[in-house]
Amino acid sequence: MKNLWEQLPTESRKAFAVFIAFRDMGFQRSCHKVAKKLSMSISSVLELSKRHNWPERVRAWDAHVDQEIQKDQLEAIKIMKQRQISLALKAQKAAEKGLRQFIAQFNGTHIPPSAMKPDGLSKLLDTGCRLERLNRDEPEQNLEVSQINKFDNLSLEECQQLRMLIAKAEGIT
Prior knowledge:
Elements: H1 13-23, H2 31-37, H3 42-51, H4 54-104, H5 118-135, H6 156-169
Helix pairs in contact: 2-3, 4-5
């Protein structure tokens, strides 16, 4: 016998069937309920329970079920995190594309009318970054801008336009 909840060598098929009925009642199980459900005398059920050590066997069964549920929950969490990270990265990519289009309009490039507004792009980028951090179990605080030197590629005029846009977004102007 591999597991306590399996049929014991000394247990008849009928006795094992009664144990299964008891086991499968979950945390509401009782010998009285099994006796009633199977139309048996309570004394017969109590005798089977004692002879075949039902309390220990159902504790082992409940622990096994709990372990399996925990495994399933952990797997579901892993799948959820992978899905949400993927969506967060897509949101960041969409925001990046929208920001590029938005910035291009200041360089005289034509912007399609469907281009997202700057505040929407900012929210999308922020949400995408926040979701990625959360799903990678990184804190939302302690955020550092790691690519500040990318602003070195902007012209003085672009920096001034960026300052004006930030001030407008923050309601300063």
